[in-house]
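pasting for the record
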Amino acid sequence: MSNNQQETNPEGVVGLMLRLRGFGITDTRLMKALEAIPHEQFIPVEHYEKAYRPRSMPIACGQTMVSPDTTARMITALNPQPSHTVLEIGTGSGYQSALLSMLAKKVHTIDRYKTLLSSAQDRHQRLNISNVTYAQTDGGASTEQGLYDCIICDLAFEEMPRGLLDQLVSGGLVVTAIGPKGGEQSLVRLTKIGSRFEREDLFSVRFGSFESGIAEAL
């Protein structure tokens, strides 16, 4: 967990928090994490002044990171607790896993791009984050790290990701998008009940779709 208290852009953080309150999000632990983790350090330098705007932006490997608003709303839906172990599918810039590191006991983040994983790890080290582990692997494969209390996916599945059931504890949660590639999708919260998921639709998103395998060149 990070003990780093580097100063963020206060005006941007305040604006983000006000927007989140508009969604009914007031969780104190999340707000403290948003204050402690500088979003500016996770975005391309040319977009620095836009760090806290409610929009997605491009990152390396042709990927896109979602807005800080969407990230906060996803984490709220996941509701990670201090005793939880979290699997993050889609490391991206590492911003979401940095926030999760302050809210959960352990975070295991995976991505198909080694470049993204290495950059995220470097950012986490600068923030003294020590409870995140990393792996370049297929997001649809078992991580062999044991069972997780919750799984969060920064991507969309075209149908229910039933393969994730085996990686969850009983009653565990998945937050992911489900819907067509290139179209509007629904961000959903899935609760494991026996051998099935109970589904709750949250809000509409447009995420990149799940791709199997790992990237050999990047």
